[in-house]
């Protein structure tokens, strides 16, 4: 029997954050709007980050995405398919109700309901679970369909809500009903595309936050976000525009925080249709189905130039979906070099000596410089003869249409939400289905990849599991199920009297903002 037990005393020390006697309000400038107050609805960075302020999981991730105790203080494997969790005692939800095992059961069972109509659901994180049982008020047993070594990583993504909310819909939560967690802050209000307000949870099981109230203000316009920081209208901002980094660093009233990020920027190509709406060869067929064409597009991209000239160095060229240092990263897979001559040769060999026509779609307000990056990539494509138009749209429109498969080639970003490779490989590359590949907007499908990834997910031995993840990555990158571009760096600016460690997942969490 394998035991993985972590003492509650360790948890207390991990989550302890000094709180000064003088508390005050904090105003935070966000780069993107939360699209739902349902923490189980949509796997996307702004929503997940906001949820962490209000909700806890059985386990949480620290600043480097390592698993730490949260509502569970210890756990063990009873056998290969059974996990037992001991829960933290004396925890209360924001409405004053006691947290018990029944709340865990209901929260996990709610995920399918919350997944309805989701652009990218949480279903993949619970699909291995076959049963969840409350053994007693502070003990939960979870059974899985097979060995599930990544269960803890997956559970770190599942917010725990009061049991009576099992049937609460996303629409109801978006209206403000039932936004109740155990986290360091309590929900007050949400105005879409404008602001979210939270108050400190004085009954939090960990050290209390330093802030009485936090107001998150949305500044989709990067210049407006920087101006608010420089004028003192906000206390901190996230996602510093690359062109403004030096300006902020030069100010004697604030400081800039930079950490290596976990988000891969990539291209998804339509690999599911013989005829595609915005990619047409002379015969009217979809050229993106051919691996030679996908490789040609990858070789046409000067990733170093994108990082240096557009991102001002705030990024790292990518050849796979997770950065170096993450579980499942394969050092044998190299970044495609910039080689337009070879790209043209591949196009000709694929039957497109005169290339083809393509409209490339991207967001223009979701990621740093996303519109500029898209325009530059469009120019790279044009240089190898692809007749390329670039169309950018607001994220609120773009992602819905992309999920509806209205486009042929798109740009997206995916964070390593679980801290290891399957957390990205699964959502964006696994064959699309009710509980798989929910972010696979190109409908890439390779049975060998699916089998390898599935085997990795049920392999308890770390070395064997990592080898399988590397093999799955090799398959997908040989096919170019997606074209990796670069990993984003994460940046924040804060006033001089504050400190923030910064996080690899890019979450902006005021609980860890400390007065100096």
Query: Which term fits the overall shape?
Result: globular
pLDDT < 50 stretches: 1-21
Largest sheet data: 12 strands, mixed
Q: If helices are DSSP runs of H or I spanning 4 or more residues, what is the number of helices?
A: 16
Multimer state: single chain
Question: What is the helix fraction of residues, given as a range?
Answer: 25-40%
- Proportion of residues in β-strands: 15-25%
Structural class, judged by helices and strands? alpha+beta
Radius of gyration: 23 Å
Distance from first to last alpha carbon: 47 Å
- Number of beta-strand segments: 21
**Overall pLDDT metric:** 92
Question: Summarize this, please?
Answer:
The protein is of the alpha+beta class and 516 residues long.
Structural commentary:
- By secondary structure, this protein is α+β, with helices and mostly antiparallel strands.
- It is built from 16 helices and 21 strands.
- The chain has helices spanning 8-15, 45-54, 101-115, 123-126, 151-155, 170-174, 222-231, 245-250, 291-299, 303-310, 340-349, 370-383, 395-403, 422-429, 447-457, 462-479; strands at residues 3-4, 24-30, 59-61, 67-69, 72-79, 82-87, 129-136, 139-144, 185-191, 195-200, 211-218, 236-238, 254-269, 279-280, 315-317, 357-363, 387-393, 409-415, 482-495, 498-499, 514-515.
- The strands form four sheets. Strands 2, 9, 10, 11, 12, 13, 14, 15, 16, 17, 18 and 19 form a twelve-stranded mixed sheet that branches. A five-stranded antiparallel sheet has the order 1-5-6-8-7, with helices on one face. A two-stranded antiparallel sheet has the order 3-4.
- The radius of gyration is 23 Å and the shape is globular.
- The termini are far apart.
- 54% of the residues are buried.
- The model is unreliable at 1-21 (pLDDT under 50).
């Amino acid at each position: 029997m394998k035991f993985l037990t972590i003492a509650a005393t360790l948890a207390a020390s991990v989550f302890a954050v000094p709180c000064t006697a003088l508390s005050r309000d904090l105003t935070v400038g966000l780069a993107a709007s939360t699209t739902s107050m349902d923490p189980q609805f949509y796997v996307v960075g702004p929503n997940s980050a906001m949820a962490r302020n209000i909700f806890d999981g059985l386990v949480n991730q620290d600043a480097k995405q390592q698993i730490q105790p949260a509502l569970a203080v210890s756990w063990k494997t009873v056998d290969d398919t059974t996990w037992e969790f001991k829960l933290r005692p004396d925890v209360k939800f924001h409405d004053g109700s006691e947290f018990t095992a029944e709340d865990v059961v209901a929260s996990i069972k709610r995920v399918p309901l919350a997944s309805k109509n989701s652009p990218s659901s949480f279903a993949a994180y619970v699909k291995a679970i076959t049963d969840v049982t409350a053994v007693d008020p502070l003990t939960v047993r979870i059974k899985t369909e097979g060995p599930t070594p990544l269960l803890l990583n997956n559970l770190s993504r599942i917010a725990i809500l009061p049991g009576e909310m099992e049937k609460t819909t996303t629409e109801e939560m978006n209206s403000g009903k039932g936004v109740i967690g155990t986290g360091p802050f309590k929900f007050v209000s949400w105005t879409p595309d404008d602001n979210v307000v939270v108050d400190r949870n004085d009954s939090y099981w960990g050290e209390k936050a330093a802030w009485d109230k936090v107001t998150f203000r949305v500044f989709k316009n990067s210049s407006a976000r920087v101006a608010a920081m420089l004028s003192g209208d906000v206390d901190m901002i996230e996602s510093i525009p690359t062109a403004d980094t030096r300006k902020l660093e030069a100010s004697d009233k604030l400081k800039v925080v930079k950490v290596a990020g976990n988000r891969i920027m990539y291209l998804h190509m339509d690999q599911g249709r013989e005829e595609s709406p915005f990619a047409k060869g002379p015969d009217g067929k979809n050229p993106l189905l051919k691996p030679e064409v996908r490789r040609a597009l990858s070789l046409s991209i000067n990733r170093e130039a994108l990082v240096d000239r557009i991102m001002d160095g705030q990024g790292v060229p990518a050849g796979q979906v997770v950065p170096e240092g993450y579980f499942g990263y394969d050092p044998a897979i190299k970044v495609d070099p910039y080689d337009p001559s070879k790209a043209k040769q591949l196009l000709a060999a694929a039957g497109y000596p005169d290339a083809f026509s393509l409209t490339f779609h991207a967001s223009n307000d979701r990621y740093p410089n996303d519109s500029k990056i898209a325009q530059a990539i469009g120019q790279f494509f044009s240089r190898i003869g692809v007749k390329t138009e670039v169309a950018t749209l607001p994220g609120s429109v773009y992602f819905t249409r992309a999920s509806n498969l209205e486009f042929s080639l798109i740009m997206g970003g995916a964070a390593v939400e679980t801290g290891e490779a399957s957390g990205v490989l699964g959502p964006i590359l696994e064959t699309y289905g009710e509980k798989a590949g929910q972010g696979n907007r190109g409908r890439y499908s390779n049975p060998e990849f699916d089998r390898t990834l599935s085997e990795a997910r049920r392999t308890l031995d770390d070395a064997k599991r990592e080898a399988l993840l590397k093999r799955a990555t090799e398959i997908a990158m040989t096919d170019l199920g997606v074209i990796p571009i670069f990993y984003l760096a994460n940046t924040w600016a804060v006033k001089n009297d504050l400190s923030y460690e910064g996080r690899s997942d890019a979450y902006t969490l005021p609980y860890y903002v400390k007065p100096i």
